[in-house]
Each structure stands twice: as structure tokens, then as C-alpha cells.
Write a structure and sequence with these properties.
The chain is mainly α. The chain contains 21 helices and seven strands. It folds into three domains: 125 residues, HUPs (Rossmann fold, 3-Layer(aba) Sandwich), CATH 3.40.50; 159 residues, Serine Threonine Protein Phosphatase 5, Tetratricopeptide repeat (Alpha Horseshoe); 165 residues, Orthogonal Bundle (DNA Cyclobutane Dipyrimidine Photolyase, subunit A, domain 3).
């Protein structure tokens, strides 16, 4: 039986389910660069270049391993511009008896895959993505009957399933979670490690030229390009993180510094999400660093929690809640996304720093996303769909399964508290405590209602006031609501007027 095995651009793993039981002598692997996937949101040009170059290198990896690969480049003659169109063309070329695919990570593409059989008239088998540590049915069993889907509960399940950082049936260090030890602000350090940067080879240079020609006005800096695009280089980046940055990752994972895009973060998520690194293998290697006494437990636990806890959890939520999850808007947010999310042209030093970093690197770490750009969008009442589309577009590691729950549930509380136990709303005091952004800002973090007051301060209290009744029912934000209610009326009025004046200036 001749099989056509169709791989997507984020399925760059030799052991992926679509390649299981393959016959290299007769089967064909189809990979296709298509215009629809580069333009359905305004993708960062580095993200496009990373995916296309990684795809081309993976195709070569498969050929070197003996597979027959039918690879369609973006600028190839006759390119249909869509995944289904390229599948139709490939079926005409190869006349397979069946088609095998691994389930996509976006509801949009899952729907395309469900229609493939009707499109081509050939049987299509859709297999579960075996690169995730928690199968979907296991997550559904865990979620069944629960009113709240607490990540911490799920994380403990995953620790037991993987036996990571366990001593028998007890957690290593007698605690499941060392998050309270991982909230230290950082200071500039001449010896702060840098993630590995890789010189583009000829394949990558060809892709960079293609992206420059096709997307001359696209978002983001295309060069310098530093991403790993091969498995070998991604593994080298992994090893550098484990030896040089992991020992201090936990302490400073929430810190933010001007001009320091990476601090002690791994910057491995693009490689994990595209399939160049195995997440469980990465966690086991991190655990070894602790067991061999090369990294402290709080750092290793914090890193592992992000992968087997948070990463697996948000993927489970994405598929459990279905395609309509993206459109949820429990707080009724309607404001348009401010243009400075694209341009960086704002006097708010924190927003400017994160957007400029995003433009340069297609990267910002989780606290920059949650507590700077996400926090502002939450406080200002920005339309969740517009915020979601921005996050999906601008980061090299962003795919819907991971980005949507982080945006809709975590950053914007637009799912009404299904995912997060409270809105992650904060005033300028938090930003000042965890970063050095405020020191050079035109606005004064110590002020609340004057023209030069930090906008986050008045916006925070305006957010509390707008959603007072809803928030009063949440025990984790009861005290801010009580503090608001105790404020003198004239102070409340001044805060809301300042917030309104600032928001009106965005329009």
C-alpha cells in the first residue's frame, strides 16, 4: 500500500505519528510551504523565515534517512497557496492508496484535515500528535467533572505520570512548587549568559532572501537571524542553556531588564513547538542537572513546571474548550488594539521596550507578555480577538494551541476564570519592582492622577471600578475591591478621569 504522509511546518520530528510504520521504499512524505499559512495573520518575518528554513532542513534530514520527500517551496511554479490545494496536486502526482497525517495544533487546520478525504477522494488517517506528554484523552479524563481546571492539580498528575523530580510518591524537596523562590528582580550582569546564535547557512540565506522579497513591509526585523533551524543546532542551544543559564533561571524567571532580551531564559520554545526538541527529553536532562548538583532544585522545578505543567495544560484546555474559546470575552472588552503594539511608539518605557524587543527578536519571555503587553490590554479593555491575533503573529513560538489559552484565559481573563484563578492585573508598582523600565520613563511610577503619572496606576483602579461587582466575588482580588470601596469619592473620581483621559488619547 502506497502512503502519502503529509507533514505540517510545525511537525518537524522524525518519530512523529504520521511517519510511524512507514515504508521508505514506497511511501512519500509531502511537505509544502503555502502562502495561506504565512499570511492568515501578520506574522513576524523572523517567524516565517524560521519555520520555512527549519522545514527545508528537516526535509533534507528525512532524505538523508532514506525517505522520499516531495517538497513544495513557496515560490515554486504552480504552488496553490493552500494546504488542501497542495495535497490535491500531490495526490495527482503520486496516486497514493491512502494519506496519513498527524493532527494539527489549530482548530482551523484540524478542520482542513477533516475535509482532506472529500478534497482528494483518497482515505485519510488522522493520528494523534504523539510529541505531547499528556494524551488528549488523559487530559479529558482529568478535567471531567471539575468546576475549575487548576494547573497545579494537573501539574501534580504530570509529575506522577513522568516520575520527574519525585522521590517515590513524594515530590523532591518535599514541595511540589518552588514558585515563591522564583520572583527575584535582576540587576545588569556583565556575565549574564547569551543563548546560542547560529550563522545562517545557504539554505537559510535563500529563505531570508525569499522572505525579504515577498514580505518587504512585514512586521519585525528579519536580520540578524540567529535561530537554530536544524535538530543538531537546536540540541546545541539546549545544552548551552542547561549548563550556563538553568542554574539561575528560577531565581530570575520573572525579572525584566532594559536591553536584556533573554536573561536566564532558555529561548527553546520555538524549537520545542516546531518539533526540533523533545519536551520530555529536555525535562529529563534538566532533572539530571539537579541530581548531579549542577543546578538548584527551585530552578529545575520551575523550568520543568513550564513544560510538563503549563505547556501540556494549555494545550489540553485549547482542545477541551473547542474552537469558540478564541471568541470569549467575559469582561466585554471592545477597545481596538493600540497601534503602538506594532510600532513601539509610546512614552510608556515598559511597553516600548517589550515591543521593540519583539520586533527585533520575535521573542519576549512570559512575564513580559503577561505583565506588560497583556496587563495593559487587560486594563485598557482591548478586544481579546485583536490581542490574540497580535500574540499569534509576532512571536516565533506562537501556535494557536499554546497562544490562545495564554491570551484569552491567562492574560485577559476573557474566559471568565476557567483557566486563571484571578485577572493578572497590576499597577506600575509591580513593573517597577520586577524591572528597571520605570527609571527612564517619562511617566512617574510614584504618581497616580497627574498628567505625568504612570498610566498603569489609574488604569488599574479604573479596571477594578469597571468590574467591581464581578471581582468582588473572587477571593483572590477581594482586597483590591475593598480598598477601592474605601477610597474617598474625590480620589476615585480623579483616578477614573485620568484613566479616561489617557484612553481617549489612544483613539
Amino acid at each position: 500500500m502506497k502512503t502519502l504522509r503529509f507533514l505540517l511546518g510545525d511537525q518537524l520530528t522524525p518519530t512523529i505519528s504520521a511517519l510511524r510504520d512507514g515504508d521508505k521504499s514506497s511511501d512519500v512524505v509531502l511537505m509544502a510551504e503555502v502562502a495561506d499559512e504565512t499570511t492568515y495573520v501578520r506574522h513576524h518575518r523572523k517567524k516565517i523565515a524560521f519555520v520555512l528554513s527549519a522545514m527545508r532542513h528537516f526535509a533534507q534530514e528525512l532524505e538523508d534517512d532514506g525517505w522520499q520527500v516531495d517538497y513544495v517551496e513557496l515560490d515554486a511554479d504552480g504552488n496553490s497557496g493552500s494546504l488542501s490545494g497542495e495535497l490535491v496536486r500531490a495526490v495527482k502526482r503520486h496516486k497514493p492508496d491512502r494519506i496519513v497525517v498527524t493532527e494539527a495544533g489549530e482548530h482551523r487546520v484540524v478542520a482542513m484535515q477533516a475535509a482532506f478525504e472529500d478534497d482528494v477522494g483518497v482515505p485519510v488517517e488522522i493520528r494523534e500528535d504523539n510529541r505531547f506528554i499528556c494524551p488528549r484523552d488523559v487530559f479529558e479524563d482529568w478535567a471531567d467533572g471539575r468546576k475549575r481546571f487548576l494547573m497545579e492539580d494537573f501539574y501534580r498528575l504530570m509529575r506522577r505520570r513522568t516520575d520527574l523530580l519525585m522521590n517515590g510518591d513524594k515530590p523532591a524537596g518535599r514541595k511540589w512548587n518552588f514558585d515563591k523562590e522564583n520572583r527575584k528582580p535582576a540587576e545588569a550582569d556583565l556575565f549574564m549568559p547569551e543563548p546560542d546564535a547560529f550563522e545562517p547557512d545557504q539554505t537559510t540565506r535563500d529563505v531570508l532572501e525569499l522572505v525579504e522579497e515577498r514580505f518587504p513591509d512585514g512586521f519585525g526585523d528579519l536580520k540578524p537571524f540567529r535561530f537554530a533551524v536544524t535538530r543538531k543546532d537546536a540540541e546545541a542551544a539546549r545544552d548551552t542553556f542547561l549548563s550556563e543559564a538553568l542554574p539561575r533561571f528560577g531565581d530570575y524567571q520573572d525579572a525584566m531588564l532594559q536591553g536584556q532580551a533573554f536573561l536566564y531564559h532558555s529561548v527553546l520554545s520555538p524549537y520545542i513547538n516546531a518539533g526540533l526538541l523533545d519536551p520530555l527529553d529536555l525535562c529529563r536532562r534538566a532533572e539530571t542537572e539537579w541530581r548531579e548538583e549542577r543546578a538548584p532544585l527551585n530552578c529545575v522545578e520551575g523550568f520543568i513546571r513550564q513544560i510538563i505543567g503549563w505547556r501540556e495544560y494549555v494545550r489540553g484546555i485549547y482542545f477541551l474548550e473547542g474552537a469558540d474559546y478564541t471568541g470569549r470575552n467575559s469582561l466585554g472588552a471592545k477597545r481596538d488594539l493600540p497601534w503602538f503594539y506594532w510600532s513601539g511608539e509610546t512614552d510608556m518605557a515598559c511597553i516600548r521596550a517589550v515591543v521593540e524587543q519583539t520586533r527585533e527578536h520575535a521573542y519576549a519571555h512570559h512575564i513580559q507578555r503577561l505583565m506588560i503587553t497583556g496587563n495593559f490590554a487587560l486594563l485598557a479593555g482591548v478586544d481579546p480577538v485583536q490581542v490574540h491575533e497580535w500574540y499569534l503573529a509576532v512571536y516565533a513560538d506562537a501556535y494557536e494551541w499554546v497562544e490562545v489559552p495564554n491570551t484569552i484565559g491567562m492574560a485577559l481573563f476573557a474566559d471568565g476564570g476557567l483557566l486563571a484563578t484571578k485577572p493578572y492585573a497590576a499597577s506600575g508598582a509591580y513593573i517597577n519592582r520586577m524591572s528597571d523600565y520605570c527609571g527612564e520613563c517619562r511617566y512617574k511610577v510614584s504618581k497616580r492622577t497627574s498628567e505625568d503619572a504612570c498610566p498603569f496606576n489609574s488604569l488599574y483602579w479604573d479596571f477594578i471600578a469597571r468590574h467591581e461587582e464581578t471581582l468582588a466575588e473572587n477571593p483572590r482580588v477581594r482586597f483590591p475591591v475593598q480598598n477601592w470601596r474605601k477610597m474617598p469619592e474625590e480620589k476615585q473620581k480623579a483616578l477614573r478621569e485620568r484613566a479616561r483621559a489617557f484612553l481617549d488619547g489612544l483613539e
